[in-house]
Amino acid sequence: MFSTTSKLKARFDKAFTAAFGESASGIDPMLTAASNPNFGDFQCNAAMSLGKKLKKSPRAIAQTIIENLDIADICETPEIAGPGFINLKLKPAYLEAEVRAIAIDPRLGISQIEAPQRIAIDFSSPNIAKEMHVGHLRSTIIGDAIARILEFLGHDVIRINHIGDWGTQFGMLIAYLREVHPEALTTANALDLGDLVAFYRQAKQRFDADETFKETARQEVVKLQAGAEDTRRAWKLLCDQSRREFQVIYNLLDIKLTERGESFYNPLLPAVVEDLTNLGLLVESDGAKCVFVDGFTNKEGEPLPLIVQKTDGGYNYATTDLAAIRYRIEEDGAKRIIYVTDSGQANHFAQVFAVARKANWIPEDVEIVHVPFGLVCGEDGKRLKTRSGDAVRLQDLLDEAIVRTRADLETRLVAEERQETEEFITNVSEVVGLSAVKYADLSQNRASNYVFSYDKMLALQGNTAPYMLYAYVRVQGIRRKGGIDFDNLDAGAKVILQSDAELVLAKHLLQLNEVLGSVDGDLLPNRICQYLFELSQKFNQFFEQCPVLKAEEPLRSSRLILCDLTARTLKLGLGLLGIQVLERM
Ligand code: ARG
User: Fold this and answer.
1) Listed range (133-137, 148-152, 474-478) with the worst mean pLDDT
2) Residue closest by Cα to atom 5 of ligand 1
3) pLDDT tens per residue, range 427-457
4) Whose CA is nearest to atom 4 of ligand 1?
5) Do 385 and 378 contact (CB within 8 A), yes or no?
6) Which atom of ligand 1 approaches the CA of 163 most closely?
7) Atom of ligand 1 nearest to the CA of 339
8) What's the CA dihedral at 506, 507, 508, 514 to 10 degrees?
9) H-type helices in 153-302, by residue range?
10) What is the mean pLDDT of residues 59-67?
11) Measured between alpha carbons, how far is residue 150 from residues 121, 160, 352, 506, 519 in Å?
12) Within the chain, which residue ranges are assigned CATH 3.30.1360.70?
């Protein structure tokens, strides 16, 4: 389905050619949403620049445009204002037909993309045996939302978990494992290592304190790379245990990912270095193999190399990323590659992309983007920490959201003298608590830091998940109260838009298509949050001003359609953010 804006654009294009000849085709009508609803819905601002070009008065140009503009089925008669603005007001009959059309469409009028792309999204990507921290939580939530949106638009998305499952730290971990659990290296039986983060800390202490241990750790790295059986087994044990811990979080947040960790690219690393050598891009610097690209300097202003092979022959995080780019383009056939990490890695990606470009590994039809995000801060405005100063454990953070939601809910039940089952309370607490965390993250422009505040995210008012969920619940309340079967509303029922509140709501409902289209371009899920927030507000206003169940037919059916369409839009929009709705709360 075409959005109203694109429909109008096409009509303007026709008018331009009719009025000014073929050469005027393609001129941007510069349509903007009218700032003052009294003047209409859209404004065309093209007459001013056209006037300059054609050396005519903009008002005269505007008049000529209008004379050639065929939009009577969409808008009231256009009006010229000020220096030459053309104001357009949508006709209620047009809006009624459009709302009716999206109401009977299971996709709510959202078009499938005409040219779907294969898109690789690299997100979440925590590190083995290390804490999955709030940065990974942001990457997980934002990456998942972007994936859901692009999938819904019809793209073919691969969700890649680029887990940090390789590197010299494994030497230390395996050496320590050999000391404390020697049996783990010889038997194939699974073993529970308990708290892996504590294990990491102990291994690190041992590593820092003892030179002989350090040497053993180094040898374990060599053995791991050579594929020694016992060392490999230990590595796999560590990975499996971490994987199980990550999975708990993924299950809780309903996240689907395909694991393709750093180790996956090991066999492809020598070729990266070889090809860079053959291209004449490699420079040896202090025994390390480097690539220099213009525009990257260190603090002293000296050229900053990207090291692809260290003096000891080992490869880097960057080498793996270069191999991954090649794999995603050549093997996966990705036309867009999206990396979701904190903005602290912006330089890393910029440099890796620049090297890949210089090596001609990124064909012209492939787009490669870093999607950066800011820090999660505590209410003190500093990086989020526990009271004792440790990094916050994700599991604890999510549990706390659920516990607080439960407390709020229980207070509310007492106040409303409501009785609910334990099952109901548990479910509502989980859904609302987790939704609140996801929504708080997604509703911010991802580039900025955001303050993690349970009080704010759980508030029933404002741009929060509970507010949105309430609007949905409200419609379900109407359904139950009126015994309405929304799936089988009278097929002949018309949409009638009379009051302002109805018109305002209808216009907003018709904008989802455009909002989603823009997210396909700029990958800013907060646009959807803003859209849903305004939708909930407009719905609540409509609901306060327009009786639904008590209205006379045919208004009653029309308002029921608006209610149902609002609920389905909320469900769809929240679903694209990875947020589930509730029938009651
Ligand atoms: N494991 C990395 C970290 O925790 C993130 C990986 C991001 N993806 C990538 N292809 N480098 O910071």
Assistant:
1) 133-137
2) 125
3) 999 999 999 999 999 999 999 999 999 999 9
4) 126
5) yes
6) 1
7) 8
8) 130
9) 169-180, 196-209, 211-226, 229-253, 269-278
10) 95
11) 10, 14, 25, 25, 9
12) 4-90
What residue ranges of the chain are covered by domains with CATH 1.10.730.10? Answer: 400-577
Tens digit of each residue's pLDDT (9 = 90 or more) over 140-177: 999 999 999 999 999 999 999 999 999 889 999 999 99
What percent of the chain shows pLDDT beyond 70?
99
Q: Structure tokens of 331?
A: 């093997």
Q: What is the distance in A from the centroid of ligand 1 to the CA of 132?
A: 12
User: Does domain 400-577 bear CATH number 1.10.1040.10?
Assistant: no
CA of 379 to the centre of ligand 1 (A): 27
Residue type, 163: I
Give the per-residue pLDDT at 192: 78
Ligand 1 mutation target, pool 127, 341, 355, 370, most atoms within 8 A of CB: 341
162 CA distance to ligand 1 middle (Å): 6
Q: Tell me the C-alpha distance between 11 and 27, whole Å.
A: 12
Spatial separation of the C-alpha atoms in residues 362 and 297, rounded to whole Å = 23
| CATH number of the domain located at residue range(s) 4-90 in this protein | 3.30.1360.70
Kindly list the protein residues whose Cβ atom lies closer than 6 A to any atom of ligand 1: 122, 125-127, 162, 164, 321, 324, 339, 341
CATH superfamily of 118-163+263-377: HUPs (3.40.50.620)
- Residue 2: per-residue pLDDT: 62
Domain with CATH 3.40.50.620 in the chain: 118-163+263-377
* Cα(262) to centroid(ligand 1), Å: 9
- Contact 125/163 with Cβ under 8 angstroms? yes
Q: Are 521 and 563 a contacting pair, CB within 8 Å?
A: no
